[in-house]
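Notes from the 1:1 (GR / supervisor)

We went over the backlog. Supervisor wanted to see one worked example end to end before approving the batch request, so GR pasted a single chain during the call. The sequence is below; no edits were made to it. Supervisor asked that the structure be written out right there so they could see what the output format looks like.
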Amino acid sequence: MIAGAVTGDREIVIQVDALAADRSFVSIQAVVDTGFNGFVTLPLDVLNALGATAAGTRRAELGDGHVVELGVYFLKINWRDEVRSCAVPSFRSRAPVCGTALPKLKKKEEHWHTDRA
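Structure output shown during the call:
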């Protein structure tokens, strides 16, 4: 289960823990956006403060149909007690955003694999 809270603006927020360049985890409150089909986007200033590594760019279509070019950064995220390497797009939003493409956990993937001879 993912724990979250509802803000005074009636937005759902969850906690995302990112691994900073100094190897400490930084807790980030991300707004859940069910219209976003990625995992997480972070503002550029947050990515820079974490020491995220630039990975390039990608095109993304926004909800209003506009296509934009986003910077993408490599970042390690602690998701449900498992550190995952993620490609995180930067976005012009002031708030971190979490979408519907939550990362799969290795434990769950291993649980569902079967040996077939």
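Supervisor's comment: Confidence is low (pLDDT under 50) at residues 106-117.
Batch request approved.
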